[in-house]
């Protein structure tokens, strides 16, 4: 089971992307827990749930260094979602990027 957390401003703009990523995972028979949260909820979620990767929506990509610092030593990769893939809501490509990050950790 792969656990993928998407972070955006309010946790709502990525909900469509989450459902498209889940469909892509199902099509590839990949067990994944994919969910979106607001930037303000990240600390609370990290305290309760083990995640494999944290992906930032374009609107919060400026927070990447802050999240990397928080996750230092936890072996959780942090990256920004490709703007074009986000804009097109390309769940398959974003899922592929997340899985690649998980495989390289």
Question: Could you walk me through the main structural features you see in this protein, from its secondary elements to its overall organization?
Answer:
By secondary structure, the protein is of the alpha/beta class. It has a single domain, classed as Rossmann fold (3-Layer(aba) Sandwich). Helices cover 43% and strands 20% of the residues. The protein contains five helices and four strands; from the N terminus they run βαβαβαβαα. It has a four-stranded parallel beta sheet with strand order 2-1-3-4, sandwiched between helices. Helix 1 links the parallel strand 1 and strand 2. The chain is globular, with a radius of gyration of 12 Å. The mean pLDDT is 94.
Which class do the helix and strand fractions yield?
Answer: alpha/beta
CATH superfamily: Response regulator
**E-strand count:** 4
Known CATH architecture: 3-Layer(aba) Sandwich
CATH topology-level fold name: Rossmann fold
The CATH class: Alpha Beta
Helix content: 40-55%
Low-pLDDT parts are none
Strand content: 15-25%
The backbone outline, from C-alpha atoms, is: globular
Radius of gyration: 12 Å
Average pLDDT confidence is: 94
- What's the N-to-C terminus distance? 15 Å
């Amino acid at each position: 089971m792969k656990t993928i957390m998407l972070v955006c401003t309010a946790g709502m703009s990525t909900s469509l992307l989450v459902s498209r990523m889940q469909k892509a995972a199902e099509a590839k028979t990949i067990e994944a827990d994919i969910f979106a949260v607001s930037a303000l909820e990240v600390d609370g979620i990290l305290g309760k749930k083990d995640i494999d990767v944290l992906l930032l929506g374009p609107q919060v990509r400026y927070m990447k260094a802050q999240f990397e610092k928080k996750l230092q030593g936890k072996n959780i990769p942090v990256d920004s979602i490709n703007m074009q893939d986000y804009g097109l809501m390309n769940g398959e490509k974003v899922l592929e990027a997340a899985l690649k990050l998980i495989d390289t950790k």
